[in-house]
């Protein structure tokens, strides 16, 4: 087990990285550790644990802005926002259930570093779209900042975007600023029963192009629907649409949605509390939770063109024996594959490559994650650019090296 | 106006004829412009106070030509300045006397419209408005709407991360593009993103967007299409004090309402606009707020009522809700004509573009009045109130000696004030050459060096749009050097476990 370094403030993070550079030690960057099992299984000399950098530094609801130290628990931030009728609109998923960890274990820095989002991604964007400002320490041991605390800002390169989804391979975040948004006053979910994947794909496409203004659209087979409390008794495939807003608006859009859905199948609804629970389960891909019936399967997360989601899903089912959960109106596919030595990376990447998009191996034993590419391999010119970008922040590969791609 | 640009490279200028010939081999016919007269239209962009003739103008038509031009310039050590429609307000497309001006105007095809996936694939020379027009028949649009949308191009929008009046609710360019084809200075071509969401690896698209043409040349862009809202209504609300207007904005957002647009004007801007377009604006108020709600009729009516209630509690002296599309457009007419309206009351004006935390608005307006007295120049303000983006228009007369210089100093003071109160130098117009030398007011040397190191990853010889954004140019080799204390640092005194 690598030794942990636990800096107490941003200055100590800089010191720690400078020391590691001088001593030639590589570092694993960890917030609160909830996503440590994602990424290539690589080895580091020491762990830089940022959980002591904790606390909300600024929260101004009327300005829609919150700043916090990077190791602040996400749960603490979400509780604070909820008390003020606000939320992180990108709805960051909780990897705890899927990876076999505890729920609610994420830090805000980890959420941003992995560019998390949830079902509302299709309407509100991902973490990247809400990441306004950052202070971080690069792999050169230098503190730098980018962005600010205002939404509209084009002053200099948008390094927040680059750091979002860089999985700690460019810099260790110390302080972050995010946009907050009002939580919808009401929400309802319209469910449509018994559609096959292709019909569900067609309906989701129609709804997303309509005035229904759904903030989430997902589809799960009868077998997967059975694993969720809200749909356990349905006994059929379930396609769900979430409507959020003020009550008169939700009522109006529900009528629009039901008119679209009725030709497809039986329609039902989930009121507020059940709706929230349903989308939390979709967000966290709980049908594939580590403790559940598919707990031993390898999990791929695939982003593709939404209208072609069911085509990708069918191929994954037929050629890789996958169980498939569709979110983002078909654009996000969670595929659970029977465990193999290579997580069937070849067929999965061929299917996604043929349709367009990218696939990340989220859950598999360490040996598998050491043997196959976890993140989407890049064509040579792009891979070389990625390497140069990485080196511009971390020329010696000190931080999380090898986590995203071998040798980077 | 003067700003120091990179020193002209005499060796390159001496080879001008060869370079022009080399470029003509890549882009035949009229795609290479070398006569002074024909290059004249390219000598400035929307920031007309800065002018320079390029060494040569090249107008490629294909990605292959862009790639070959950049590869040629890379090999020959020639600088390149990319240009869309030339509407930049910060001098982002200001030519270099020893550089190629790479005009992307011929890339004006909409390649694909895909309503099922709600995306359009367009060439960078397509205008912003043309995208919305091309999908209007099906009830869709492209959300970012900079005020120059009739002329500005999608490529330029990507370079500048353009905003518009609806970005509080719908985001700016970076939130509405999904992919691009990018040619690097080396001539290499990469594709980023596509019809799907989120980057597979590093979010390079996110960093290209708003990079002001310093990292690469975009030859194709995939944009998101949104369903047009069912309807829109606006409220026109007047306040006796700008503080009341600011408070109203805060309370609207505090009530959980995110309007499609929320614009504020101060007294001089209201007066100029009203005299120009006769929109029916009240002339006895200090601040005028336009709040637009969009969505289903039931939602819009419901929220508009709430906005009016909030306005009343904030001491609004006038409040009118639009009852027809004509009336809504009339409310907007004055705001949309604010810049030309100000142009009527002053021979020249200088448009600034800082962003501030909204709560600082009254303070910033007060300080601006003090500066106005100090510099003896009038100022009118239009304000994207929802997102804190402030456009002070400084009124001056370039024919009066010293006024332009005073206007520039006044503008710089305003931007420094924006940073001082927690805001930024530019909300949507870009740094360009205009605000380049103010960057140290917001960023430390270390901040700027890290940004320039990123630039080196894309363009190691600094040939693409040099002299923009960064006040000091460093060589990549110097930036890349590591200062390592070779095992001499003590183990840091911090918790280990």
Task: Summarize the structure in short.
The complex is a heterodimer of chains A (408) and B (497). Chain A is an alpha+beta fold and 408 residues long. Chain A is built from 14 helices and 18 strands.
Output the keywords.
heterodimer, A: 408 residues, alpha+beta, five-stranded antiparallel sheet, 14 helices, 18 strands, globular, B: 497 residues, eight-stranded antiparallel sheet, 17 helices, 34% helix, 19% strand
Walkthrough of the structure:
The complex is a heterodimer of chains A (408) and B (497). Chain A is of the alpha+beta class. Chain A is 32% helix and 24% strand. Chain A has helices at residues 10-23, 74-83, 96-99, 108-113, 121-124, 159-163, 197-208, 222-225, 247-261, 272-283, 309-320, 345-355, 366-371, 380-393, and strands at 3-5, 27-30, 46-49, 56-60, 65-69, 86-87, 131-138, 143-147, 171-179, 181-182, 186-193, 216-220, 238-245, 266-270, 298-304, 323-327, 332-337, 357-363. Chain A has an 8-stranded antiparallel beta sheet, with helices on both faces. In chain A, a hairpin with a 4-residue loop joins strand 7 and strand 8. In chain A, helix 11 (309-320) runs antiparallel to helix 12 (345-355). In chain B, helix 2 packs antiparallel against helix 4 (63-76), helix 9 crosses helix 11 and helix 10 crosses helix 13 (338-345). In chain B, the strands form 4 sheets. In chain B, strands 12, 13, 14, 15, 16, 17, 18 and 19 form an 8-stranded antiparallel beta sheet that branches. The termini of chain B are far apart. Chain B has 17 helices and 19 strands. Chain B is of the alpha+beta class and 497 residues long. At the A-B interface, strand 1, helix 1, strand 8, helix 6 and strand 10 of A face strand 9, helix 8, helix 9, helix 11 and helix 16 of B.
Write the layout of secondary structure elements.
The complex is a heterodimer of chains A (408) and B (497).
Chain A lengths: L2 E3 L4 H14 L3 E4 L15 E4 L6 E5 L4 E5 L4 H10 L2 E2 L8 H4 L8 H6 L7 H4 L6 E8 L4 E5 L11 H5 L7 E9 L1 E2 L3 E8 L3 H12 L7 E5 L1 H4 L12 E8 L1 H15 L4 E5 L1 H12 L14 E7 L4 H12 L2 E5 L4 E6 L7 H11 L1 E7 L2 H6 L8 H14 L15
Chain B lengths: L9 H5 L1 H11 L5 E2 L2 H4 L16 E3 L4 H14 L2 E5 L15 E5 L6 E5 L4 E4 L5 H8 L4 E2 L12 H7 L6 H4 L6 E7 L5 E5 L10 H5 L8 E8 L1 E2 L3 E9 L2 H13 L6 E6 H11 L9 E9 L1 H17 L4 E4 L3 H12 L1 H8 L2 E4 L2 E2 L5 H15 L3 E6 L4 E8 L6 H18 L24 H14 L17 H5 L17
Parallel strand pairs in B: 2-4, 3-4
Antiparallel strand pairs in B: 1-2, 5-6, 6-10, 7-11, 8-9, 8-10, 12-14, 12-15, 13-14, 13-18, 16-19, 17-19, 18-19
Helix pairs in contact in B: 2-4, 9-11, 10-13, 14-15
């Amino acid at each position: 087990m690598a030794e942990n370094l636990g800096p107490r403030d941003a200055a100590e993070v800089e010191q720690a990285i400078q020391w590691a550079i001088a001593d030639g030690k590589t570092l694993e960057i960890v917030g609160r550790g909830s996503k440590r099992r994602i990424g290539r299984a690589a080895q580091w000399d020491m762990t830089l644990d940022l959980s002591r950098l904790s606390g909300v530094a600024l929260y101004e609801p009327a300005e829609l802005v919150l700043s916090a130290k990077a190791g602040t628990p996400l749960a603490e931030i979400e509780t604070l926002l909820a008390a003020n009728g606000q939320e992180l609109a990108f709805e960051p998923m909780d990897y705890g259930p899927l990876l076999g960890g505890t729920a609610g274990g994420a830090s805000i820095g980890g959420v941003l570093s992995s560019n998390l989002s949830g079902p509302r991604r299709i309407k509100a964007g991902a973490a990247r779209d809400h990441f306004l400002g950052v202070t971080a320490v690069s792999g050169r041991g230098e503190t730098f900042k980018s962005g600010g605390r205002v939404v509209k800002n084009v002053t200099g390169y948008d390094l927040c975007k680059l750091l979002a989804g860089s999985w700690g391979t460019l810099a260790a975040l110390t302080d972050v600023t995010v946009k907050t948004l009002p939580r919808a006053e009401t929400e309802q979910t319209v469910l449509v029963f018994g559609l096959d994947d292709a019909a569900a794909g067609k309906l989701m496409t129609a709804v997303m192009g309509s005035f229904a203004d759904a903030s989430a659209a997902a589809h799960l087979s009868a077998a997967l629907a059975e694993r969720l409390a809200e749909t356990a008794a349905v006994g059929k495939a379930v396609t769900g649409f979430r409507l959020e807003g003020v009550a008169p608006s939700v009522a109006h859009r529900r009528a629009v949605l039901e008119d679209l859905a009725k030709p497809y199948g039986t329609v039902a609804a989930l009121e507020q509390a059940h709706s929230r629970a349903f989308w939390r389960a979709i967000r966290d891909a709980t049908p594939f939770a580590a403790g559940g019936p598919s707990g031993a399967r390898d999990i791929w997360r695939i982003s593709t063109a939404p209208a072609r989601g069911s085509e990708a899903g069918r191929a994954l089912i037929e050629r890789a024996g996958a169980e498939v959960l569709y979110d983002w109106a078909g654009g996000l596919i969670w595929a659970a594959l029977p465990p193999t030595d290579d997580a069937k990376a070849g067929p999965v990447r061929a299917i996604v490559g043929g349709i367009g998009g990218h696939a990340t191996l989220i859950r598999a034993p360490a040996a598998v994650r050491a043997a196959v590419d976890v993140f989407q391999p890049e064509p040579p010119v792009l891979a070389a650019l990625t390497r140069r970008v990485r080196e511009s922040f971390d020329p010696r590969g000190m931080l999380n090296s090898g986590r995203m791609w071998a040798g980077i | 106006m003067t700003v120091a640009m990179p020193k002209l490279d005499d060796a390159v200028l001496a080879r001008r004829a060869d370079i022009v010939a080399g470029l003509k081999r890549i882009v035949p016919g009229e795609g290479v412009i070398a006569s002074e007269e024909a290059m004249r239209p390219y000598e400035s962009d929307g920031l007309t106070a800065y002018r320079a003739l390029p060494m040569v103008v090249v107008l490629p038509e294909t990605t292959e030509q862009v790639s070959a031009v950049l590869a040629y310039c890379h090999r020959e050590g020639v600088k390149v300045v990319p240009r869309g429609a030339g509407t930049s307000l910060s001098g982002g497309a200001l030519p270099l006397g020893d550089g190629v001006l790479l005009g992307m105007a011929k890339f004006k095809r909409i390649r694909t419209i895909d309503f099922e996936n709600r995306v359009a694939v367009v060439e960078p020379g397509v205008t912003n408005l043309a995208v919305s027009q091309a999908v209007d028949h099906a009830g869709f649009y492209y959300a970012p709407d900079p005020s120059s949308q009739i002329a500005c191009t999608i490529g330029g929008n990507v370079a500048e991360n353009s905003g518009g009046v609806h970005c509080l609710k719908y985001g700016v360019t970076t939130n509405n593009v999904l992919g691009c084809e990018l040619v690097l200075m080396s001539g290499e071509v990469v594709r980023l993103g596509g019809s799907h969401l989120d980057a597979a690896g590093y979010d390079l698209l996110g960093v290209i967007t708003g990079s002001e043409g310093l990292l690469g040349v975009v030859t194709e862009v995939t944009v998101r299409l949104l369903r047009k809202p069912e309807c829109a209504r606006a409220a026109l609300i007047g306040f006796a004090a700008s503080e009341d207007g600011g408070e109203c904005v805060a309370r609207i957002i505090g009530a959980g309402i995110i309007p499609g647009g929320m614009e504020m004007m101060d007294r001089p801007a209201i007066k100029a606009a009203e005299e120009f377009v006769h929109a029916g604006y009240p002339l006895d108020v200090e601040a005028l707020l336009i709040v637009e709600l969009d969505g289903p009729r039931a939602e819009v009516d419901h929220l508009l009522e709430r906005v009016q209630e909030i306005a009343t509690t904030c001491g609004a002296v006038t409040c009118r809700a639009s009852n027809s599309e004509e009336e809504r457009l009339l409310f907007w007419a004055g705001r949309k004509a604010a810049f030309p309206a100000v142009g009527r009351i002053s021979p020249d004006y200088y448009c600034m573009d800082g962003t501030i935390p909204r709560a600082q608005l009254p303070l910033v307006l007060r300080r601006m009045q003090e500066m106005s007295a100090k510099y003896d120049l009038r100022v009118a303000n239009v304000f994207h109130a929802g997102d804190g983006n402030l456009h002070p228009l400084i009124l001056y007369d370039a024919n009066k000696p010293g006024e332009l210089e005073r206007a520039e100093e006044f503008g710089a003071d305003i931007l420094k004030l924006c940073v001082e109160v927690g805001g930024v130098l530019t909300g949507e117009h870009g740094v360009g050459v205009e605000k380049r030398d103010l960057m140290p007011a917001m960023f430390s040397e270390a901040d700027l060096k890290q940004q320039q190191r990123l630039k080196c990853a894309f363009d190691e010889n600094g040939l693409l749009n040099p002299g923009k954004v960064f006040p000091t140019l460093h060589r990549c080799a110097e930036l890349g050097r590591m200062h390592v204390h070779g095992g001499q640092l003590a183990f840091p005194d911090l918790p280990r476990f």
